[in-house]
Design goal:
alpha/beta, 8-stranded mixed beta sheet
């Protein structure tokens, strides 16, 4: 094999290895496999978990500490139950709160954990019951728009309500 052909072969091999590494990293990041080390599962029960998906980030104080493993509807009370995979080195008090938040105005949704003050900690499989559901921006805008329309229809202070 000549020197230029050998150089081209090694360059192609290097590029192929780089592409495989990028694909592997993309797939693992997309699945939320960036969590390293031991983890445990807990659940959080929401009235509305709109915008949260499998793989969504779980954060505490702005730091990613886990991800949403799965979502399901409880057939007994029709609430949304999110299964969360949390780092094992992070012990959450039993009175912790989970909130659905948005990064930016129209960004991705994530779960924010606000730790409580209890001295007892959540054990694997236990449920966070203090939750704050997602804000439905469409209905909020609709209420504001229709609320202002209703106010415009009300008689103003300048108009007389007496008939001649």
């Amino acid at each position: 094999m000549s020197q230029p052909a050998r150089l081209e072969f090694l360059t192609g091999l290097f590029v192929l290895a780089g592409m495989i590494a990028v694909v592997w990293l993309s797939l693992n990041t997309g699945r939320g496999n960036a969590l390293s080390g031991p983890t445990y599962l807990i659940e959080a029960r929401f009235a509305n978990s709109g915008g949260i998906n499998t793989g969504s980030s779980v954060q505490l104080a702005g730091v990613p500490v886990g991800r949403v493993e799965s979502l399901r509807v409880d057939p007994k009370d029709y609430s949304s139950v999110a299964t969360l995979r949390i780092r094992a080195d992070l012990q959450l008090p039993t009175d912790s709160m989970a909130s659905v938040k948005t990064s930016g105005l129209i960004g991705d949704k994530y779960l924010l954990i606000s730790p409580g003050a209890e001295e007892q900690f959540l054990k694997p499989g236990e449920t966070i019951t203090m939750t704050e559901s997602s804000v439905d921006l469409e209905s909020l805008i609709g209420k504001m728009a229709f609320g202002s329309v209703q106010q415009d229809k009300a008689p103003s202070a300048n108009q007389s309500s007496t008939a001649p």
